[in-house]
Amino acid sequence: MRTVALILAAGRGQRLGAATPKQFLSLAGAPLLRHAALAFLRHPRIDAVRIVGDAAAAADALAGLAIPPATPGGASRQESALAGLAALAADAPGIVLIHDAARPCVPAAVIDAVLDALDAGAAAAIPAVAVTDTLKRDKGGLVGETVPRDGLVRVQTPQGFRFAAILAAHEKAAGQALTDDAAVAEAAGLAVRLVPGSEENIKVTVPGDLARAEALLGARVVSSLIPRIGTGFDVHRLVEGRPLVLCGITIPHPLGLAGHSDADVGIHALCDAIYGALAEGDIGVHFPPSQARWKDADSAAFLRHAAGRVAARQGRIAHVDVTLICERPKISPHAADMRARLAGLMGIGVEAVSVKATTSERLGFTGRGEGIAAQAAATVLLPA
Ligand code: MG
Description:
Layout: E1 3-9, E2 26-27, E3 30-31, H1 32-41, E4 48-53, H2 55-61, H3 77-88, E5 95-100, H4 108-119, E6 124-130, E7 135-139, E8 142-147, E9 153-155, E10 159-162, H5 163-173, H6 181-187, E11 192-196, H7 207-223, E12 225-240, E13 244-246, E14 249-251, E15 255-257, H8 265-278, H9 283-286, H10 300-312, E16 316-325, H11 335-346, E17 353-358, H12 364-367, E18 371-383
Parallel strand pairs: 1-4, 1-5, 6-11, 16-17
Antiparallel strand pairs: 2-3, 5-10, 6-9, 6-10, 7-8, 12-15, 12-18, 13-14, 16-18
The chain binds magnesium ion (MG).
The site of magnesium ion has 5 residues, from β12 and α8.
C-alpha cells in the first residue's frame, strides 16, 4: 500500500523567540524541516514526502530533495493538516503519516512502529512515551494538587492513518479546535493504537531543545561516517634560483624545488592522499600541468580544492600525516608553522595535522640533495 509522509511546517514557532519560524532554523548544518524530511525520504517504507507550509521557504530548506512544492498551510495546525490531506486526495495514498517539522530527530524505529501497527490492522497509530516525572497542578506558584500519572502517556508524531478515514475525519472536524490528528480520529470514532515512541523524538519548542536536537543529530552524523585512508607520494628536484616552499611555508635555503607550480612537494603528497581517500584521482587530474594557468601556482589552492571535495561529499578530514624526506633543510624548526598552515588551508584543527621529516642516510637522490620527496596519509570520514 502506498505510504506518504505529510510534514506540517506551517507554524510560526513563537515560543522559541526567533524571527525565523523554528522549522526553518538551522540545526547541525541544515534546517529542522530538512532533517525531518530526510528521516522519511530515507525510510524504505515511505514512498513519498509532502510538505505543508510556505512554499518559498520550504523550497530553500529542501533544495535538491525529491519533494514537490509545499501546499500552503492554514491558520491552525488542524487547518494545515486538512489542507495537506486535501492536496493529497487527487493521488490518494493508502496510508498517510502526519508529522510535525519540529520533530527533526524522529528515529526510523518510531516510523516502523507506527507502520507495523497499521499493517496489523489498526485504524490509527501514534507513538507515545511514558510520563516519568511526578505531575502537580500549579496554582499561582503553589502546588494545588498532585495529579496521578497512572495511565498517562506523552504522544508524539508521526501519527499514522488510513488516508480516506483521516481525510473524512478532518473534513468532519473542521471548525473544532482539536489538538492533534489523533484527536480528530478519536472524534470520528476511530480506535487509535499506542505504539512505542522515543525520548530522542523531541519536539523543538524552547531554545534549550535546539541544543539537544543538534547534539542528537550531530552524534548520528558521526556514527554514519566510514573512515577511508588515502596515501600520496611526490618528488621534486632541487635547483638554484627558485624559492623553497614546503607545506605552505617559504623556507630560506640556497636551493628551491623545480616544477610547474610552486612545487610544494609536501602539499602535493597531501593532496594526493586526500584525493586517494575519496577515490577521485590525483592532483594531476584536477590541476593538469599541461595548463598554463597552474604555472608557478600557489599549491595552497590545490589543498583548498582537495579539502573542498571532502566537504562536497559531506565528509570530514579526521587526520593527516606528512613526512618530508631530505637531508637539508632541517624541517623541525618549521614544523609548527607548517602544521598551522596546512590546518588552516584544510579548515581542521592543528591537532589533527602531523608534519615530520626523515633523512635517507645520505643514500639515493634525497641523500645526495638532488631533490626532496614527501609521503602523506589522510584519514577521511565519508557518509556510508
Ligand atoms: Mg608534485
